[in-house]
């Protein structure tokens, strides 16, 4: 029996990492990014958000309305009460971001978002840990905390790699490999990471996949073929093509869900993100939403196919050359 979560639950991303790693810079990139989402932002310290004055269009108590439609709240007494309040707003958020304090342990925060009372309303989407490439080995007395922040994260963003030599970056890689059996790592300058990797939303349409990965070829029924090695820039003018590549899988063949989660776990560490729909053998009348962000895997039953022709349609984002046709076929079409 395959157990599904709720595909309509509001996804939550936690930003963690030691002091000065770049969490606020990353948060601001998300706030001003071209994602079109109504985002609620929770922070440990309201004053820690460095939002440019020209973005703020109104302030009332602990609520800031930003030009891009984001809502920011200050966490004060009880996180659960704050989350419930946010979810009850007239304009319900489509996404929740939490910037944790640089000295906080993300495990206790994550437990809050997996509370049973939130089962059908929110889902913990990912925990992103920022690591300062220049200062990762500084403050050795805080190394245990840094390791815990990394251990509980789904993806590590090694930030500020432009401030150190490649030998230092490799030293960080070796250090992580010696301590963690399995982790996902993305290198970044000034916390500049594609939004496709950072945000995972289940309610996306098939045409949005086309927008992210242009389809230059015609696909007839039953082709079951793959498109691959497409790279793309972003509307904000930053071109990530040199560091990231995308691969699309399309097939009208029903997929067995048994073994799928374990098969996904075998993807290499350089595969950062997978999202899309699966046409399943077990529940052929409904779309199955698959979300993979770093180590986190979410498989949920969605709405019926209706007038749409059932098909498996997925996009994988990873380092250049990290995803092959054979790999996606083996994982998603023959997972058992």
UniProtKB/TrEMBL annotation:
Keywords: Chaperone, Hydrolase, Nucleotide-binding
GO MF term (any one): nucleotide binding
UniProt domain CobW C-terminal: residue ranges: 244-336
Reactions that this protein is recorded to catalyse: GTP + H2O = GDP + phosphate + H(+)
SUPFAM superfamilies: Hypothetical protein YjiA, C-terminal domain (SSF90002), P-loop containing nucleoside triphosphate hydrolases (SSF52540)
Keyword check for GTP-binding: no
InterPro entries in alphabetical order: CobW-likC_sf (IPR036627), CobW-like_C (IPR011629), CobW/HypB/UreG_nucleotide-bd (IPR003495), P-loop_NTPase (IPR027417), Zinc-reg_GTPase_activator (IPR051316)
Protein function: Zinc chaperone that directly transfers zinc cofactor to target proteins, thereby activating them. Zinc is transferred from the CXCC motif in the GTPase domain to the zinc binding site in target proteins in a process requiring GTP hydrolysis.
Family that this chain belongs to: Belongs to the SIMIBI class G3E GTPase family. ZNG1 subfamily.
Name of the protein this chain belongs to: G3E family GTPase
Organism: Aliiruegeria haliotis
């Amino acid at each position: 029996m395959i157990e599904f979560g709720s595909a309509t639950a509001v996804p939550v991303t936690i930003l963690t990492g030691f002091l000065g790693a770049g969490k606020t810079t990353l948060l601001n990139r998300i706030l001003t990014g071209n994602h079109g989402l109504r985002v609620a932002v929770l922070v440990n310290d309201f004053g820690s958000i460095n939002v440019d004055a020209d973005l703020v269009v109104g302030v009332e108590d602990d609520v800031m309305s930003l030009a891009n439609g984001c809502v920011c709240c200050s966490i004060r007494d009880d996180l659960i009460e704050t989350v419930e309040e946010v979810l009850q707003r007239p304009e319900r958020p489509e996404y929740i971001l939490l910037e944790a304090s640089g000295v906080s342990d993300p495990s206790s925060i994550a437990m809050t978002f997996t509370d049973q009372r939130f089962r059908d309303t929110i889902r913990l989407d990912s925990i992103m840990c920022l690591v300062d490439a220049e200062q990762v080995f500084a403050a050795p007395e805080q190394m245990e905390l840094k390791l815990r922040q990394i251990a509980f994260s789904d993806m590590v963003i090694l930030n500020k790699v432009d401030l150190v030599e490649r030998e230092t970056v490799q030293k960080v890689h070796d250090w992580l490999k010696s301590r963690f059996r399995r982790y996902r790592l993305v290198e970044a300058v000034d916390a500049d990471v594609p939004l496709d990797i950072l945000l995972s939303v289940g309610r996306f349409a098939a045409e949005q996949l086309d927008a992210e990965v242009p389809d230059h070829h015609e696909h007839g029924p039953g082709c079951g073929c793959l498109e691959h090695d497409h790279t793309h820039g972003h509307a904000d003018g930053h071109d990530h093509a040199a560091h990231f590549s995308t691969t699309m899988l399309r097939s009208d063949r029903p997929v067995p869900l048994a073994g799928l989660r374990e098969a996904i776990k075998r993807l290499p560490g350089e595969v950062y993100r997978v999202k899309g729909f699966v046409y399943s053998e077990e529940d052929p009348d409904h779309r199955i939403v698959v979300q993979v962000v770093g180590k986190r895997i979410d498989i949920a039953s969605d709405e019926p196919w209706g007038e749409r022709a059932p098909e498996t349609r997925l996009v994988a984002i990873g380092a250049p050359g990290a995803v092959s046709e054979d790999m996606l076929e083996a994982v998603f079409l023959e997972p058992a």
